[in-house]
Amino acid sequence: MTTSFNFKRDVLPHAIAVVIFLFLTAVYFSPVLFEDKALAQHDILQFKGGAKEIQDYRERTGEEALWTNSMFGGMPAYLIQTHFPGDWSGYIHKILTFDLPALAGNIFITLICAYILLVAMGMSSWLAIAGAVAFSFTSYNLIILEAGHNTKSLTIAYIPMVLAGLIYALRKNLWIGAALFAVGLTMNLHFNHLQMTYYMLLLVLVFAVVEIIFAVKHGTFAELFKRGLVLLVAAILAVGVNFGRLYTTAEYSKYSIRGKSELTAPNSGEKVGSGLDREYAFNWSYGIGETITLLIPDFYGGSSSAPLDTDSETYNAFLKMGAPPAQAEQLVQQGLPMYWGAQPMTSGPVYVGAIVCFLFVLGLFIVDRRWTSWLVAGTILSIVLAWGKNFEAFNYFMFDYFPLYNKFRAVASALVIAQITMPFLAVLALWKLINERREIKDLDKKLLISGGITAGICLLVWLFAGTASFVSAADQQLIQAQFPIDAIRADRESMMRSDAFRSLVFIVLAGGLLYFYVKNKVSATVAVAGVGLLMLVDLWAVDKRYLNNSDFQRQVVANYFQPTQADQLILQDKGNYRVINLPNPFNDARTSYYHKSVGGYHGAKLRRYQDLIDRHISRNNLEVLRMLNTRYAITGNPQQPVQRVPEPLGNAWFVEEVKPVQSPDEEIEALTMFDAGSTAVIDVSKFPVERRNFNPDSATINLVEYEPNYLKYEYQAPKEGLVVFSEIYYADGWQAYLDGEPVDHFRANYVLRAMEVPAGKHTIEFKFAPKAYTVGNTVSLVSSILLLLVIAGAVYYGVKKKPTEVPIVEKV
């Protein structure tokens, strides 16, 4: 029987939830929304530097460049900034976030997606609001925003919507669930942070295994299989909408540091494996003991640059050392390395909340095994993966053998699974307790046991904190700088003890409130509202340690990219050349804002270029800098901010001879001692150039027209010759033309382009028009249209026809 529409019941609660979420977002991000301030996000500033040439070209022409020469000598723009007009999912995001500015929009959509998941479960609006707060204000969500990982944040934000669609389709309305799943997955993929999507898929895999076991056990596998096929179609449509982005990323990954190396491992005859270097990938591994930060945030000191107040031991130690009060306050406020965990550094801990941990443990006792099985398994998997090199047996196996796992680094971020599963099970436990308190056997005892376990851990930490060492790898530098190391360690102990007591208090307050509800002393409304408010206060206060109003500034971008004296001196030269920033060449994209940089900042640069950095540029091989047309070096010295690089070879030049090699190893080694102006090193096993010697006397070549994706040269040569171009070789997209006719070009000097040319006066053009972009964008457009039609049809069918439903929760 169809229930008639009721505005008060069907719309008003959700409208109130949206208003509450907008209010919370507005309060937290008031500097962004009301004061025209921004956050100095490191990665976003680097992105703006690296994307400047791409954006300028788009604004000037209305087209996509797809290539930029502003970083690492030149690279595809796919993973920097490329628009796919065929992908309409960006409009969906704008609608769902009311087009709020970045940061505010990130948290708002996280709240919305978590709310959708909990409402899809059948929870009341108020309980779903409380649960959404638990999901959204996990400390990691705010910490990654401070660092500038906006796309990571948005990819995580849509995970609950994916789960909502998945669960709703399998347990209730197949068609509405499938539509919701398609939208959630489309948006999750839209932001192209594939590592976060990968972790989501691991969680879905765990969920699928549990569902299959349950279905086989209860004889419902055929129904599960049917619904699974519909979800598969929804997933294909989501992938189709994002196909342009995924296809170009997949193509580029083969040639990036995520792909297979062509060099052999040192002192062996074996190829270096595909994917990232293991040491690099596991550099950021969560310590095994560090996992307790899920319950006690500053157990390991919080941040690698944490400010202290004037009540701290360190402040008083500075006073005793003779520092004036103002100077002592400045020293402790500027941030000290309070973190003493296993990672090289950190901006803050992953803290899911003391109350969430308490309710999570309670969920183990009272929530149905069908839910706890995959949520607990997902949590354990998340924690173990985050341990990385601290749990080698499992994680090195995963890295070496599990599909695609070796493409990702910073494995500590695997805790994003736990920050989904732990609040989910916690809210399920709260829902179960509120709805079925009279049906749960020994509920008061289970409540006390859960509180006793979590509060007991906090109490033990509070009592015995002094037994820890509080020694950090950074301490030696502090000692050398004559910082009061004993006082700093005492403050680390104080932070641990203080947060242990803090978590203990929140657990006692929430547990006491729920105990009173179980004993019928307070109403369900008071219990839910009280626990929700306590979770908000708990998480909000910790979040503000790492992202607060003082972090926001005016004119962030303008100030960061204010041209320096070095920039102004170099920009007087209107030619086409490259610049190297010597103080920080390979972790800085600010240089790319104004210049074509030899360096840059990107997590997936071309592997051959990384080889060149490792073997030659970092060792100051002048011939390599010359062949890259490096004309200026930024020194970082105020007295001489810029130096000319001796005799850069220009945009292109004729060479006298070919030095043939037979492998990539020989090719890169040959650059150690060679004259780049006269010799071209060519791997003839891949590019069989027959002629070895040329006479370039009186031959000239000049770059006469430049765009990021188009280069035009004019040359004149009395004889046939071989030209080397100071441009990065990338076969999948760059096509060469001689007098308008397509011609072959090949690779020289390990990373550059080269071409044999006839005598006479001719024109050479290079055009970057990769088929992957054209094909991918077309598939995205078709899929966007299909997705909208399918969603509309699924919603109509799901509402109108009311297909058979399997209750989501027989027993939670």
TrEMBL record:
Keywords (A to Z) from UniProt: Membrane, Transmembrane, Transmembrane helix
Record-annotated membrane-spanning stretches: 12-29, 100-119, 126-145, 151-169, 197-216, 228-247, 348-367, 374-391, 411-434, 446-465, 500-518, 525-542, 779-799
Source domain of life: Bacteria
Any Pfam family hit: YfhO
Name of the protein in its database record: YfhO family protein
